[in-house]
Amino acid sequence: MENREKLLEIKNLKQYFNLGKPNQVKAIDGVSFDIYKGETLGLVGESGCGKSTTGRTIIRLYDATDGEVIFKGENVHGRKSKKELMKFNRSMQMIFQDPYASLNPRMKVADVIAEGIDIHGLAKSKSERMERVHELLETVGLTKEHANRYPHEFSGGQRQRIGIARALAVQPEFIIADEPISALDVSIQAQVVNLMKKLQREKGLTYLFIAHDLSMVKYISDRIGVMYFGKLVELAPADELYNNPLHPYTKSLLSAIPLPDPEFERTRRRITYDPAVHNYADNEEVTMREVKPGHFVYCSEQEFQQYKAKNKS
Amino acid sequence: MSNILEVKDLNISFHTFAGEVQAIRGVNFDLKKGETLAIVGESGSGKSVTTKAIMRLLPPGNSEIKSGEILFDGKDLTKLNDRQMQKIRGKDISMIFQDPMTSLNPTMTVGKQIMEPLIKHQKLSKAEAQERVIELLKLVGIANPEARFKQYPHQFSGGMRQRVVIAIALACNPKVLIADEPTTALDVTIQAQILELMKDLQEKIDTSIIFITHDLGVVANVADRVAVMYGGKIVEIGTVDEVFYNPQHPYTWGLISSMPSLDAKDEDLYAIPGTPPNLLYPPKGDAFAPRNEYAMKIDLEQQPPMFKVSDSHYAATWLLHPDAPKVEPPAAVKKRMKKLPGSNK
């Protein structure tokens, strides 16, 4: 773990909306984590917990209120010239949740995909541009005949493939996938997840996979972060998080997932999370602590000792 | 157990500019008193159209019930006029819609919206209705109901709104409750609460529920029986144990194997290839045949009838024909078959 290259470091990231106004919202309130090269980091939590905002702030769709996002040693949110910004935009791309809303209905698929190629001048001639588009379509499992059609002619799963092709067009290293499968049917979800895994193997991509479907996240992610009310409460390798959740919120979240197994469902017991159980004192330092190598929990010193003790037994 | 609702050979078409879309092609099922029947299937498989037909909420202009019967209480719902149907809708049969954000009227207080069916159907006075609304709000677990009564939907969170929608649906103690993806728009923790609430209420008022969803986890949680729909037909129907632990139709196999199990890793997920059929041009044979790796020649030519697996379990696949070759279901399904209670004989 230690010797792996950090692609992205997020340090104490804060994103407040309506700053200073009475309706100020702390969408992200001091989140820190790293993403290693070539891994998939899953981010889960309920709606409004700040997981999408985290993704959008990382890619600079929002300006961070405070904190740093360091991508390959450079601060994303620092002042940037147009040229630097272009370079940055090329290396980080996003796949959006709703394949119906994220494609311009008035553009042909070829132009949707090639927009990034045009902006970054990646094709020298028209024929080279089309060649790239055809190549990309084939990569995501569509055919080149699809290039001249409009988005409305495609099903949800096919549109999501177009969204993926668009993200790949500029050859990024890092892709933020914001609930890429939640708008799709079960049988199509598997197709898209398999495609994303295949592309990761072939192109060495790094993913930040934001979702609320925990079983899919478990399947695709190497590590998973759990967010609650703008804070990261637990971060651990995927198996470790499922087998040995420590934070009470993680436990309640895991106990709420229905599994496709009637026998299991009959005996399932749901745990509810009450934030009052922590009972933190005002001056107590509550922060992310490493309970086990790679397994971080947001806790106070006292809880930290308890978690550690529990782990040993 | 007696049947409260029977759907017999239902055929529904939509007339569009492109031609006739045969959305429902011969659907048969019955709903027993007090049970929960889950209908699963992907978008366009006809699950919502079926339930809208039961509620008679299909758009009057371009939809047509071509044939079939929906028997409720001895009456054929397809034959009723609008007036007669209005007496049943919301009273004996009511519905919970998918999106709690859009299914409430934003300009009316929550209390007023729950009062509506009570005044309309049960002819309660305003004061009586108000009292009953407070009761209902308590029943669905909304704290401080007196204050909540006067609030508007935007003052409620998603989960709380869905509770309000459930309160409206349950206001008249319906015999049949249709829930069309009631938890799809909600978070898992809220979903778990709503599912628990529905089960709890079902016990209290002994209603039958038709539960539409595409989440197999939710099905395993709530259903007594499951109907799997594909291409406008029910392809498999049985008790929840039979469908999950002894599935027979290749489409059900595909659905079950495409869900990641919590211990699977590093191997590709099983994905059903291709896309669902276009019912503008309904296939001649089994609608699933083009995506089915087990398809035989006959699948492309003739639609399979419902074969009986057990008294409660039926599936429409030629694989169950006595002359069909024995096939091995996918590994994920075989693992499940071992779990069927009573299968270790």
Can you lay out the helices and strands and say which pair or pack?
The complex is a heterodimer of chains A (313) and B (345).
Chain A: E1 6-17, E2 25-36, E3 40-44, H1 51-58, E4 66-71, E5 74-75, H2 82-91, E6 92-95, H3 109-119, H4 126-139, H5 156-168, E7 174-178, H6 186-203, E8 206-210, H7 214-220, E9 223-228, E10 231-237, H8 238-243, H9 248-256, H10 262-267, E11 287-292, E12 295-299, H11 301-312
Chain B: E1 3-16, E2 19-32, E3 36-40, H1 47-55, E4 63-72, E5 75-76, H2 82-88, E6 93-96, H3 110-121, H4 126-139, H5 145-149, H6 158-170, E7 176-180, H7 188-205, E8 208-213, H8 216-222, E9 225-230, E10 233-239, H9 240-245, H10 250-257, H11 297-301, E11 307-310, E12 313-315, H12 331-337
Parallel strand pairs in B: 3-8, 3-9, 6-7, 7-8
Antiparallel strand pairs in B: 1-2, 1-4, 4-5, 9-10, 10-12, 11-12
Q: TL;DR of this structure?
A:
The complex is a heterodimer of chains A (313) and B (345). Chain A is an alpha/beta fold and 313 residues long.
Extended strand count of chain A: 12
Topology pattern of chain A, helix = H, strand = E: EEEHEEHEHHHEHEHEEHHHEEH
Total count of strands of chain B: 12
Radius of gyration from the alpha-carbon trace of chain A, in angstroms: 21 Å
User: What is the percent of helical residues of chain B?
Assistant: 25-40%
> Which CATH first-tier class of the largest domain in chain B would you pick?
Alpha Beta
Number of domains of chain B: 2
Q: What is the beta-strand fraction of chain B? A: 15-25%
N-to-C span of chain B: 28 Å
The oligomeric state is heterodimer
Main sheet: strand order of chain B: 6-7-8-3-9-10-12-11
Kindly state the mean pLDDT of chain A as a whole number?
89
InterPro entries (chain B): AAA+_ATPase, ABC_Ni/Peptide_Import, ABC_transporter-like_ATP-bd, ABC_transporter-like_CS, Oligopep_ABC_C, P-loop_NTPase
Organism (chain B): Mesobacillus foraminis
GO biological process, one term (chain B): peptide transport
Main location (chain B): membrane
